[in-house]
Amino acid sequence: MTLSTVETCIPIPPCHQGEDPVALIQEWMHRASELGYRGIVVDLTGWPMDGRFQACLQEARAENITMDVFTRATIAVPDRSQVKRAFRNIRKKLGVDFIALTSPDESTLNYAAKDTRIDIIHLGHLREFEAFTDGVASLAGQSGIFVELPFYMLLHVPSRHRSRILRGFNKVMHACASNHARVLVSSWPRSPVDLKNAWQKQVTLSELLDASRQACRTIVVDNPRELVEP
User: Fold this and answer.
1) Residues near 28 by Cβ (< 8 Å), separated by ≥ 6?
2) CB-CB contact of 28 with 188 (8 Å)
3) What local confidence, expressed as pLDDT, does residue 3 receive?
4) Cβ neighbours of residue 107 closer than 8 Å, sequence gap 6 or more
5) Which phi and psi (to 5°) does residue 31 adopt?
6) Rounded distance, CA 212 to CA 180, Å?
7) Cα torsion at 11, 77, 153, 192 (round to 10°)?
8) How crowded is residue 83: how many other Cβ atoms within 10 Å of its Cβ?
9) Antiparallel, parallel or unpaired: β 68-76 and 39-43
10) How many Cα neighbours within 13 Å face the side chain of 144?
């Protein structure tokens, strides 16, 4: 399988009563297709562990949208003592392709960066940026684990936090570049209109952060492809 561009996180929450989950999935697939994506990774955190999403996805695909759909779950772990229990057979229980971990605790991130059950370390808050160190980046690089930053933080962050967010992004990206750890900047859109194409993400990253156009292209095009094409 060869994909042109892949969006590595679209969080689709379980539908409320009266909503049509198939129509919701189709709406996201249409939007991603319009933006040039040929693959998406849907975050299923919050969905029941009963295969319901997969059944809805199969029905949504009947419309013949050209889109490869992968699934993931993002697990929040407050400290290292809860890692083993949180990840016991988690992939099988949820039926997902990828597992991401998020934690504000440095020792937990160090542990996660060595755990081959984990595919992605997700950093979505300032405390998590602070907990991320060169040591975590080095272990992630050695283990082949991806480090993820949410693109929505650059678009929707309150102005009073903007400089701290940019410093956090730069810190993580520099640590990963120095330790050969692959970075993902996933959209994490709150609605279909928030989803941006790869070119928009690349330009925004290169304008706001201390990174070259080529480095940004690697982050938004090459690394997502490597996630789904190991």
Assistant:
1) 10, 12, 40, 42, 192, 195
2) no
3) 45
4) 79, 80
5) -60, -45
6) 16
7) 0
8) 22
9) parallel
10) 6
| Region label for 219, one of left (φ > 0), alpha (ψ between -120 and 50) or beta (otherwise) | alpha
pTM to 2 decimal places: 0.91
At residue 41, the 3 state secondary structure works out as strand
* Strand, helix or coil for residue 150: strand
182-201 burial string, b = 16+ CB within 10 Å, else e? bbbbbbbbeebeebbbbeeb
Q: Are 9 and 119 in contact (CB under 8 A)?
A: no
Structure token pair of residue 4: 């042109």
CATH 3.20.20.140 fits 6-228, yes or no: yes
In this structure, are residues 103 and 78 in contact, taking their beta carbons and an 8 Å threshold? yes
Q: Mean pLDDT by 10-residue block, N- to C-terminus, for the chain (230 residues)? A: 75 76 88 93 81 81 79 87 71 79 94 91 95 98 97 86 93 97 95 91 93 94 92
